[in-house]
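Let's do one together. I've listed all components of the complex below, 909 residues spread over two lines.
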Amino acid sequence: MLLARKKKEKIDPDILALSKIVGAKSILHHKEDLLSYDCDGFTIHKAMPKAVIFPKNTEEVAAAVKYCADHTIPFLARGAGTGLSGGAIPLNNEVIISLVKIKNLLSVDYENRKAVVQPGFVNLKLTNSISHKGYYYAPDPSSQYVCTIGGNVAENAGGAHCLKYGVTTNHILGLEVVLPDGEVIEISPNGVLDTPGYDVLGILTGSEGTLGIVTKIIVRILKNPESKKTVLAYFNRVEDGSQAVSDIISAGIIPAALEMMDQTAIEGVEAGAFPVGHPPDIEALLLIEVDGVAEGIAEQIEQILSVCENHHVRDVKVARDEEERGRWWANRKTGFGAMGAISPDYLVQDGVIPRSKLPEVLEEIRAINKKYNLRIANIFHAGDGNLHPLILFDSRIEGETEKALLAGTACLKACADAGGSITGEHGVGIEKKEEMRFIFSDDELEAQTAIRDVFNPDNLLNQGKLFPTPSKCMDIKKVVKPI
Amino acid sequence: MDEILVEGSLTKVANRFGNMTSHIVYPESEEEVAMIVKEANKDGQKLSIVSGGTKLGYGGIKSDYDFTLSLKKLTGIVEHTAGDMTVTVKPGTTMQTLQHFLKQYNQMVPLDPAHSSASTIGGVVSANDSGPRRLKYGAARDHVIGMRVVYPDGKVIRTGGKVVKNVAGYDMNKLFIGAMGTLGVITEITLKLRPLPKYSSVVTLRVQDEALHDLKAFLTHIQDSMIEPVSLELLNPKLSKNLFQIEEYHLIIALEDVKKAVLFQEAWIDENKPTEAIMEVINHTEDFWITFNELTPNSQNDFQDTTSGVLKIGTTNMGVFPLLQECDRLNFEGNVEIFVHAGAGHGLSTLMISGLPENVVQSIRSIQTFSEEHGGYGIVKHLPLALRKQVNVWGQLKGPLTLMRGIKQKIDPKNTLNEQRFIGGI
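Okay, and this is what the predicted structure of the assembly comes out as:
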């Protein structure tokens, strides 16, 4: 086989050059090896890369990037490939620079509350590495047991606990970045706040891998709160659940997490790997967690319970112990995957709305559900208005995938029309490129691509992501203008 | 729209601090801002932007702009939805007005920069300014969720949105926060809010010079403990004398939570504090912070004969200790007087240096160098124009200046807005 291959194939000079940079064992370029890199967590769209390389350090990343830049080869960076919007899909036959081998925890500085990690380091591993000292890393996307911190930076990842503690951008203190021409820059390498100059750190975080490749990350670590209490509340009517969310916040409580699931979502999680026995006939459940100084927790829990009582809660309980709390969270955090138990396929959406518009938007999602005749489960970070409608469909039925995509877009339109956004934590990627027009004007999109041009002038890095392609109606508008 | 040639005290301010001309225009709407900026940009005119006017001594080595655009008349709350905990406000609104408005709803913008009665939200955001409570709440960059910005070509660009969680497109808010008005004119700002704390207190611990190391050990102990301080501000003896009339080191621990939790933390501090430390509890926290926020001078009120400079120093959290010792050394030498409050939990310190002009300049240089050698930086936040020209206001930059210049060039190629106000001559 090997011999036959050698005879047949003329080795591509780019592959040869790249394997010289990273080593022959750290490159994949045969079709069969590349198949698993044709998409990420967004599986509807697929494309084959030219090669996948696995550099071991910053220097190899920089050398590979420089080679690609010099030879006009499109390239992109990839972490664990858990992204849900298609940001790591090689639309242009890219060379994929996988960062999974650059995966160490370089240092932890408890006194100054920071840690230095490499991009391939897995999110949850950081918390696990420092929990013995009573510390943790706050951003906790549901995929945290596998997703990498490099990917978190690219996507500005959120999670269930960002209501109180903020998203990735609030926890990044410094970065080392390989720019698209191969130059390596450092921003706040000591993790000192407010380093003078434009906030390049802030712009890079959440740029979905289109401005540079992160090779070192200085993150803030936090001390575990003394006490945590988790409440589970069941509501017969979704309106009551929504109103309870608003009233908890209005009472001046900022829970660490405030999550909601609707009836279809409950059906899914109960059929999944971590059922906890939620009743099947309720319209909404709330999972509410408060944390802080123990002495102050009881009072907040009492307030939360009384808010729930005021809104006709069917049943409400406080987790007895860490084991029960853990089970409730496992049930919630595996919610997306659990949909696989009740539907052959599902599409996750990620809209954001002002919290007060929750009942109206849920009503609209119900209408979308009817219009497309597809079931939609809703899992959301209700505290910050971040909705995850999960559109259940069967790709084996002709036309259903397209219908699911249309229903997803309709959900995002409903969020945008309510004054919200088309993505709260999953990113735009290729999935929501066109939907960017729901919230940004042409001028505003141009203002953003102008920034990309500063970092990535040749647009070889992760091309075709984030921004809509100039549409026909825009061309027509331009033609019509002079008349 | 008013257009005036100023005289009297404003001219005095302009002459002393720069960044302002005697020809000031006062647009009353975003459309007027856009029109003025667009025309200026077309004609190759340079303009400086001013809002509350407290930061004229901050950055910049110019006073000869063609005119000044003031945001003083662009004020007021545009939108506030209590249930969503967001507010949209115009840039000329003072911090105090904004906080007073939100107080009726038991809410606040969790920012406490200095001079809240005069400084405006537009200025605070443009300078990414923050105060002692940053330890718990973060800075402007953590609270701003959306803006409207007039670009030099007159286009109005919205950044972010009005929801608290949003990753659609680049986080363009970050570009304008802390950009010192060099990229666009902010005409509207939307912020995330927090509930007012149910109860608060300020615990002070004072020790004599030689016990500073005990305070350091105690700070580490606090950070590893269960208590959740809102600020850990360390005052040097000189500043303490101004504030408390006692010339000793003071550690200020602010606590905000439900009453029971605050009292519990006070008791914990009392039990665990260094033996020689004397503890006091301040319950009128609002009055305390108002006084605290006026400890340093600003360009609206600094007309003393002695020269005062204000520095912002960034270090690691524990890097504030060597900094305090360096300030002690300089105070001991006696050429200048240095008043310090150092943020032990976040590493940002404010230094006020008073003395003869040449000595102030010399000390600024020396402290900047010291901070840089310790992996941090020093920025001059307030100093008369003539002296700013003698120092490197932004310190020695190690960051990606090429990218920063590229950003400026892309958005404001003709240097229409606040030319040379920022780092590296941007």
